[in-house]
């Protein structure tokens, strides 16, 4: 059960008083409201600017922060400070997207704050706010428009609109066509002809603008010995995307060739138009031209996996994919190769930007062979030279191993007693056999069963020039036979496997017969050097040799058309080539909030990946580095693995995570927390840098910007020490006073506050009506007091109005602001200096009234500005001269230091912790000239607050105190109201209800603005917000008049009405409607 509710209090909760008002209205009794203005409405003012001066142009992907300033006021001549529920600001971004809601946006309201589905707009419900409040919102936005576009935010609330200045964006344009790693699908047509395909995939970079709608690719001459016919374009529908363990191509068909559905994460769009043609050179070679158009750059259907389910590169997104179908005539018992050795790409242009196609993935080869009795090749290859690896990849240690094998098929008889064997020779320029990560063994080719006995292994570590890369022109791995240089061989495995240049295995045929082995395979596993050459000038060759009864041999069918380097011009069925390709790195550092709050950890994510359109599998090594700015430090234990930490010359922490294995084309992330460290200047932008490093690859870098929160609010309020002024018994002067309070809940220290108070003038639009005259005294402990005697119509209450000089400065004013007080003061201005975060300042205005009469009303108005929240805050208050019978009710809350808070304005609400006790004090004062009787005071929440007074003499008062307890369910801003009735000479006296507010914060909460405050601007409980406006609306005062009572009214009601001629209510802080 809740102790409190912050529902708006209902006026006049005592039934008899409600009935009295109802009867008065039914009988046509006119409410009294001297010179009452028309019903007022809430008005908003907005301003928008960037939080700091962002560098122009701004790179796409950069987070920048805007400051949206908002003021909430009453548009009446005498503005009130009522609470306004659901202050909803909508903010839209042009060429930007929101990733988070501003810190001040409430999600616990009936109308919650939210982001749009496309993240281009947000709705921010500030919850309940009190009129007379100016707020600053920090709004982070990520720039993501095309090159030279403009980033702009537009904020709207009510009828107010504000727009930030434009920021020019720059965007990187990248586009690439990949041909590598084609499908191995082929279809036998008539025993000599085969139907096959080459895949192509067009991609653009993440965040890249759209490229050209039409593109033409020229494929240079293929080998004259292998012609293609019947070329055609088609969507790709092959389930196999090339090597099963490598990154291939996605699918553009909705159904695979075998009829099964294509998963959405493997499907990319096809193009609207595709054509392919072939022409012959004078030498009889073929030149193929592919043209595609109608490319869908919308990226509504973006695949993340290839046709075979292998991850695609994360640094780009496929916008189109398809195949070029062709037919090849092998001829009886022949072999041949069809290759696209180097596809010529067009120039990519987009809005003045240009991009260059990546060269390494612009080739592809398909080889068609009829196998002989033995062959050697890289694992998963068909001797086509299509194997591609990256520096540092260690195959055997991980799932996808790079193996080469020498495979010999032989009849088991009559050679059963002969010695057989296989030998693998390695081109060691860019790869090495690797220690414990290399497993050498013989296996059954059919069942892959290891053969552990009857095998003699030998390892060549000699200095033969043919296997020494430093020997220059003499280097020739194909020319080395595995019986050469006997002294260089050893049957003992070396300690340093990088010295091994060849591995051989010898066995007797009879042993294989006993094991039932029909074929044998020798696997040797290698690692590409971390500093391997990746420019295409060198790769890695392997050479397989076979030992038969006829001796060692390394012959095989020549395969002339395959990718190769300068070492050899052709491959063969016993010698295969592996190309080395550099991977690309990505890095994207992000934060869980674009805003830093002192004392609150900031979540940081450093996402990284190694990418290739040709590669898959795992890579070994690399590092991710994060550099934190001064003001942020790594929170120990917040990451899954601890980084090494270094401090640079500027005092910044550099965090380093060494990578063991990284799956290519897979985004990984390192999550950790950073702790804000004082001092932090609100509004300051801090930048977090990160990069991904990998051997042989360019370093990818990124940066995240976070802003030290500068959100907050400033409120203005006015209260009277006595809302009802009692005239002296023997005549003379009456006195009245009110206090103007400015309070900051801004996290930023404000350089000045400036408040103008326009004094009452008889007959003014605010509702003032009085006789006589008054003099003025001002008391202010801070700042400078200025006066003017300009006519009320000449005074503009906004301190920033040119007639007042400027906000915070009277220089250049035209209405005579001066520190010298004139004879007749019409306006007061107080300019004070620094207002600290969470601080409050007050000045008092005292009136001494001569010639006052009962019923006189004095309204005054104050408007203020502060340096950071900047926009206008408005308030007003009224003092009335009491009639004969009148009373004033005061309700207070005791502060922690034992003093009492007249908590009727949001600025004065004290704060307690849930679980603590609250002590209230209610005072009823006779403000009239006659005695009051039968005084009854009722507390709307707590029976302990009720009390009665039999008689209350002129000027006398009665005080009642009581204590209640709070619980965690009471966290938030609480309003509690007391009501009272009395009788004066038989007349019912209507007394305004009086409310007191208090903030209940969470146990363990931090009331400091830098922590997690619960304050009047952000009540945690839903419902009608707190503030003076949560009190009952001002009670209207009936005046004497005659009317004919309805015959249907009961007699008791007539008696009640007859005694209502002198009703008078009092409010200590008026919000004039």
UniProtKB/TrEMBL annotation:
UniProt feature, compositional bias: Polar residues: 803-815
Residue intervals of the Gram-positive cocci surface proteins LPxTG domain: 1037-1073
Low complexity composition bias: residue spans: 1004-1014
Keywords for this protein: Cell wall, Peptidoglycan-anchor, Secreted, Signal
Pfam families: DUF7507, Gram_pos_anchor
Region (Disordered): 792-815, 999-1046
NCBIfam families in alphabetical order: LPXTG_anchor
Protein name from the UniProt record: LPXTG cell wall anchor domain-containing protein
